[in-house]
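Bumping with the actual sequence this time:
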Amino acid sequence: MRGFRVTGLAGLALGWLVISIPAQEFTLALTGDAIITRRLSVYEEPDFLEMIDMIRGADAAFTNLEMLFHNYEPYPAHQSGGTWMRGDPLLAKELVWAGIDMVSRANNHTGDYGVEGLRLTTKYVDDAGLVHAGAGESLAEAREARFLETARGRVALISMASTFPDHSRAGNARGSMKSRPGLSPLRYTTERVATAAQLDRFQVLADEMGLNFNRSDRGARTLSTNFVEGPEVGVVTRPNPEDVAEIAAVVRSASRLADQVIVTIHAHESRGERSVPADFLVEFARAMVDAGATALMSFVV
């Protein structure tokens, strides 16, 4: 098992971490969401520049690019990931100035400006020289690991999201049907746990309201929600096994090709408190470590 040491940079910027893996003498700077709307290189505050120097001093540096780059050529999608994210294409090079090498592009804003917005962002991120993962012209491409070459080894980046509008999800070609550009998804299921007495009361209420209440020995389904019978109220989430298997296969392959394998997921799902990840994220993280991931980052907002 490879050990690691985590050093926080909380005094400089919330969410910036440096992970040092002694066995490889490799330092990785990991940051949170990059919602960049203006230049960084113009600022000269000492604390800010000290943080930038720390990022630049790492062997590799990562951020979650929660932004699209274009000049309003594409139409906005009918649904956004909360709002329609967009930045000046020149800002991609500001991330490089700050020392960032790798970015994830799978998040709830990937499809804010449709396929054209995704493709323009790909162009500008490529032009800036950033390694990026999590979005592509097909599901297979969005799933792919992307690689960064450094003096101290090769780093693989594999990215996906569990929070996204449905139109953002990538798909593969089939027969005469073209592939669908989009992001790499991690889908999941949700079941609500209710006691037998609660389900009985729900049955009465559903009958009174004329709702379809499909009761079974295991639980019930109504209002597009699955209920399972249990001793106390709760919520159970599980990752989609097909998605887990596909992503794990990519991680296993990348672990044979790279010295470090970084898996990142953009997720808004939590278990009550924001700091506690949903059950399906914990199960997914364990599967990725078993498949060969060196580190896993989850963005729970």
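The tokens above came from a reply further down the thread. The CA atoms of residues 59 and 90 lie 24 Å apart.
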